[in-house]
Amino acid sequence: MKYFDGNETLLEIVEKYPETIPVFTSNGFSQMDDPEKREKFAKSISLKMALMLKQQDLKIFSNLLIEAIEQKNLEIDATLSSEKGEFSDNAIKVVGLLPCPVRIPLLEKFNQFSKEYHIDFDLAINHELKAASMGLDWVEKNLIGIEKLEELPDIFISAGFDMFFDEKMIGHFKRDGVFEDSTKIGDFNSLFSEIDLKDPQGHYAMIGVVPAVFLINTLELGDIPIPKTWEDIMAHEFEKRVSLPVGDFDLFNGILLNIHKHYGDEGVKKIGRSLLESLHPSQMVKSEKKKGKRPIVTIMPYFFTKMVKEGSTMKAIWPEDGAIISPIFMLAKKDKQEKLQTVIDFFASKTVGEILSHSGLFPSVHPDVDNRIPKENKFMWLGWDYIYSNDISKLIKHCETIFNESIQ
User: Fold this and answer.
1) Helix (H, G, I), strand (E, B) or coil at 47
2) Total-model pTM
3) Where in the chain is the domain with CATH 3.40.190.10?
4) Domain 212-323, CATH
5) Do 9 and 38 meet the contact criterion of CB atoms below 8 Å apart?
6) DSSP per residue over 311-375, as a string?
7) Phi/psi at 30 (nearest 5 deg)?
8) What's the whole-number average pLDDT of the chain?
9) CB–CB of 35/87 below 8 Å?
10) How confident is the model at residue 398 (pLDDT cuts 50, 70, 90)?
11) Under 8 Å CB-to-CB from 163, ≥6 apart: which residues?
12) What's the pLDDT score for residue 371?
């Protein structure tokens, strides 16, 4: 590991990287927030041993720690701002928001690829690949208000619907035919055989998806039947008993859009009435230990269900009507296709697909990737016909308004 190893004590890690303290406290190590308790507890136990006692995965937890370090120090990123003076204006510009669990391994592979690309083509790649957790604040500073094509990144990658269809961000460029999918992926992974993920208009390239599933607190559930579908969690038994990833804007809006498509305004109202609170997924897996009223159902990315400790009262449920998916899109400029193709091929490769799937549990569309998800697990996808027949940006705002009014 770049910054620490499993044999270092918790105290050694947090003394070097204080920014990791919130990761520990939100994942079951509450004493790490108290200097006196931390001094007594953390100096005598290694990371590996602590996670073994908590029955948490060392690799997954380490990635969360590294992500906190990376966001603080920006030691891996070769960002656009820091490289403007280092490379010529002719450099390829790659920008995006990467799902947190896969950002580190993707950056490592991409940095290696960028060096080789520079040698082979005598052309540099400026890249700014931020953590998706930086969300809308980063987007507002970097995308809103761009009018000139040359100011737009050559390749843009992110999950969700918001920025891709918003006229104030990327939507108007798409409408003008600026982007083209040249990923060369014909048939998508067989896991998605029942849904059509490929953009029929050839603008948006998709490289993977983020599935949303249920985590059930069986202790809080009591005699209520386990909810198995999205409609089930709209029942009155779950009013004020559901935790939603409201802060995860890309996934949350994907959930609202799909609920609206299938159940209309009333469905969005019911989801709003079900909301107890919004938690980060890493907090959701520990919600059984919360004081006061606890959620029965937490809706979260599939990745975080793997952090549930064995023997916990928390039970992961893959919805029978399908895990709602938020697409991981890649947009590339059509007029630079020849120049960009090798970079596009990298992001659409089996190597990147396996990082998405195996490190982040974000299923890849690449046909040769083993996504390690049972074939019977279904997905709920908004659908291109629906996307192109609606103003998605306007519909998101409509759903958000209904949702917010229903939770008052």
Assistant:
1) helix
2) 0.79
3) 212-323
4) 3.40.190.10
5) no
6) T-SEEEE--TT-EEEEEEEEEEBGGGHHHHHHHHHHHTSHHHHHIIIIIH---B--TT------T
7) -60, -30
8) 85
9) no
10) very high
11) 139, 143, 169, 170
12) 97
